[in-house]
Write a structure and sequence with these properties.
2 copies of one chain form a homodimer. Chain A is mainly α. The first copy, chain A, is 66% helix and 4% strand. Chain A has 11 helices and 3 strands; from the N terminus they run H-E-H-H-E-E-H-H-H-H-H-H-H-H. Chain A has a 3-stranded antiparallel sheet with strand order 1-3-2. In chain A, a hairpin with a 3-residue loop joins strand 2 and strand 3. The longest helix of chain A has 29 residues. At the A-B interface, helix 3, helix 4, helix 5, helix 6 and helix 9 of A face helix 3, helix 4, helix 5, helix 6 and helix 9 of B. The structure holds a DNA duplex.
Chain lengths: 257, 257
DNA sequence: TTTGTTGAATGGTTGAACCATTTGGCAGGT
DNA sequence: ACCTGCCAAATGGTTCAACCATTCAACAAA
């Protein structure tokens, strides 16, 4: 019913503002950001806090910082990492670009989760099996009560990632899950296909039966249906009702001092 | 011949030390790190610099920071993102775990690049085609001269990622490329399979011919051969010559004050 | 033209102070 | 014995004011 409030730190807010400038192509790659002292003043904060924001942007591969040489904006297409996926969903403003990106993201998720399911079927331990059963049970309950379905869905997929028994796979699933968690937040974009629970039950059973091919197949079938439903929803938002598009555009901003 | 020296900032060095504690399981998930003031003193630095390090670790999903509530170590298996892949290769110390992880990583690379090649074959623009040709030419030259082969190889694959025409794919390739770039650095782990250049030429031609299936197939063939050669190399390092294992263990550390 | 010098701009680091939140203990009431 | 409310310590968040190290461009000297 209720959900925790979030308080973004000043550094996070500053980082987001600069990140948006970059991801929305409002600053050209190769150009330089104003000096730290200057930027801190413009944002109404101090250098140390600003530098925390700069650190984040540097780690994200959006800018390059050289002592004495200023801060250069990089071309995020060439230097960005996959973890930008979650920020992109929050920070890109053009609805068309956002829609196109969601389509890309679900396609990647489909391919990745097929691989994950195949590995999970082959590699899962008895402990993983229990976790998966528990996650599915929680999901069923969520569907029955109609509350927290999205969260339970993502938790189930995270569990599948762990069951694959490989660190890189678990991390890949985490990255994708984080991204879709943001997309789902506030019910901005969450649809359930016809026969959703049955599809996921088929996945669970294939994995538990240690049948890699069937696991991959069932996951693919699930996501093909889910993605189709999702894309229809996007279609109706981007073409049809303009007024309803508000849910599609970000709402929150930095809180005042 | 020569390569640029790197000067890690203090914050980077601090972050790495803490990251190593976590990734090598020397601090338990759920435990708390010492207070910022305390940590800063132990590292012989100040709070502001330490906080930059903390920011990085937080963004990497390794710790959780709450005002007034201390810094909690998270379970990196459950909260880490895929970008940790490059840090892991640098920071994990147990040779067995490192070897196992490399095997995981190359398997993921193989699957991912097959998808990338398929998309690149379908989606690449004329501009992408030119870039790919140029990248392959540079690679051929590097092979001929025997210098900078690893860098040219990675550049070629990055180029392939851009040719797929999807941001999320380019980012995925970037993340993988960053990781393998670190692995290759200082020649720590770089092998070329029999018929390397021919294999990649086959990839290039399949992509340019807009033949997705053949592109995926040739990429898979290339990596199967390359990975086999790589794994043999790892085998010989981990089992056979112990003395030579030095190249397999990290060498650099934080520089003195 | 090339090379060396120098000073301004800019990021890197430091120390101290104060604000905001969390946490746990303590006093009082029930 | 248990709950409630309050307070103080611990701890992260923010700010300010310096000073150090590197880069870069302008300029002088060879």
């Amino acid at each position: 019913m209720f959900e925790a409030v979030s308080r973004d730190s000043i550094a996070d807010q500053v980082a987001r503002q600069i990140r948006r400038l970059i991801l929305n192509d409002r600053v050209a790659p190769g150009s330089r950001l104003p000096a730290e002292r200057d930027l801190a003043q413009r944002f109404g904060t101090n250098r140390n806090t600003l530098r925390e924001a700069v650190r984040l942007l540097e780690e994200e591969g959006l800018i390059r910082v050289r002592q004495g040489g200023g801060m250069e904006v990089l071309d995020y297409r060439r230097t960005g990492g996959i973890h930008l996926i979650s920020h992109y969903l929050d920070d890109v403003e053009d609805p068309a670009r956002r829609a196109a990106f969601v389509i890309e993201a679900v396609a990647l998720r489909r391919e990745a989760m097929a691989l994950v399911a195949r590995l999970a079927a082959r590699e899962h331990s008895e402990r993983d099996a229990e976790d998966l059963r528990a996650a599915f049970a929680a999901l069923s309950e969520a569907v029955a009560s109609g509350q927290g379905v999205a969260a339970a869905d993502i938790a189930f997929h995270r569990c599948l990632g762990l069951a694959a028994g490989r660190l890189v796979i678990a991390w890949l699933v985490n990255t994708l899950a984080d991204a879709f968690e943001r997309l789902v937040r506030d019910g901005r974009l969450w649809v359930v296909e016809e026969g959703y629970l049955d599809n996921l039950r088929a996945v669970l059973e294939a994995v538990l039966a240690r049948d890699p091919d069937r696991a991959a197949e069932t996951v693919t079938r699930h996501f093909e249906a889910a993605d189709e439903a999702l894309l229809q929803r996007i279609e109706s938002w981007t073409s049809g009702r303009e007024g309803d598009g508000a849910a599609w555009t970000r709402g929150t901003n930095q809180g005042g001092t």
